[in-house]
Amino acid sequence: MNSISTRHLRRADAELYAKSYKQRRGSSYPLPIRPRLLQQTRANLIFQMPGGDVIRILDNFSFSEYNIRMRRPRTKLERRVGIQSTLEGFRRFDYDYIPFGTYTMPDASYPYRHKGAGKAAEMTLRGVLRVFGSLLIRIVYGCRVEGKENLRALNKKGAICVSNHVALLDTLFVRQAIGHFHTYFTMAPWNNKRGLGGWFIRRGGMWAFSADLAAMRNLMHEMKTRLEEGGIVHFYAEQAMWTNYQKPRPMKDGAFYYAVRYNVPVLPVFFTFKVNKKGCMRKLVIHILPPVAPDASLPRNERAGRLKEQAQAAWTTCYERAYGTALEYLPDRRRSAT
Length: 338
Fold this sequence. Notes:
The protein contains 10 helices and 11 strands. The chain has helices spanning 11-25, 60-63, 76-89, 117-141, 148-152, 170-178, 195-202, 213-228, 254-261, 300-323, and strands at 6-10, 36-40, 44-48, 54-58, 144-146, 159-163, 183-187, 206-208, 232-236, 266-275, 281-288. The strands form 2 sheets. It has a 7-stranded mixed β-sheet with strand order 5-11-10-6-9-7-8, with helices on both faces.
C-alpha cells in the first residue's frame, strides 16, 4: 500500500481536495466522498481514499480543534449550534445528525392497526399521555396552544398535519394541539426501535415507512381508512430533527403527495419558543395555522407543489410574527452559490 498521509479538511474544502485527488490518482468517485470509512466521531469523519491517503473531514466549527489548543472542551450546546450552523450554511436542512441506534425494518406484520390486547394497550397509552404528557409539557416547557379555531374549521374531517421537528418529545406537542385519540404519526424506518422503546412507539399511533412493499401497502390502506374516519395523520415535513432550531426549514413533498392522493386538507402547525443560556426550550407556543386544501382547478401534478408552497408560507409568516424578524438563513456556502 502507498504511504499514508493524513489531511485535516473543512467540509467546504473537501470538494476541492476530491478534485485534486482525482487529477493526481486518475480515480473517479462521486461527491460527497464515499471511500472506506475508517472512523466516525461527533466531530469528524475519517476516510481512506482508494489510493491510500487518509483524510479527516471536519465541520467548520470543530476545525479549530486542530489549529489552536482549546481552552476547554466544547459543551453540548456549542457542538449542536456548530453542527446546525454548518448544515444551514450548506443548505443541508434534511440531514439528520443524531445517531439512529438499532432498529428493525417494518415488514408485512407491522401493526399499523392494533386489535384485541394491542388495541387496549394503545388506548391505555393514549389516555396516559393525555393526562401526564399534557402536564409534563406545561411544567417543563410552559406550553400553550394558539389557533384552536383552525382545528375546528376541519369539522372533524380527516387531514394531513405538518409541523417542524425540534425535540424528541414534540409528538406530545402535536397531540396537545390536535388531540390524543385520533392522531397518527408517520416516521422513518429507523424510528422502529427494538425493545421496550419500540413497544411504546408502535402502540402510540406511530406508523413507520418501510422499504418492504407489503408493509407500504398496509400503511397506505390504513392511512386512507383513518382519514376517511376523520383522523389526522401527521408528517414531520422537514424530515430530520434539529434540536431547538427555531427557523422553519424547507419541507419535503411526501405529506402533500398523500394530501392530494386522498383529497384532504393540510393543517400546518408550527412551534415557537425561547432558548435559555443552557440551550433548553422554554415558553413554548404551539401555533395551529389555517388549513389549506388541494386546488381542484390545478392539474393534478401541480396540486402537491401548490399545497407545499402555501404551508411553507404559513410557517414563514408565523415565524416572522412570533419572533419579530424576517426569516434569513446564514450565507450560502455552497460552491454553486459563488
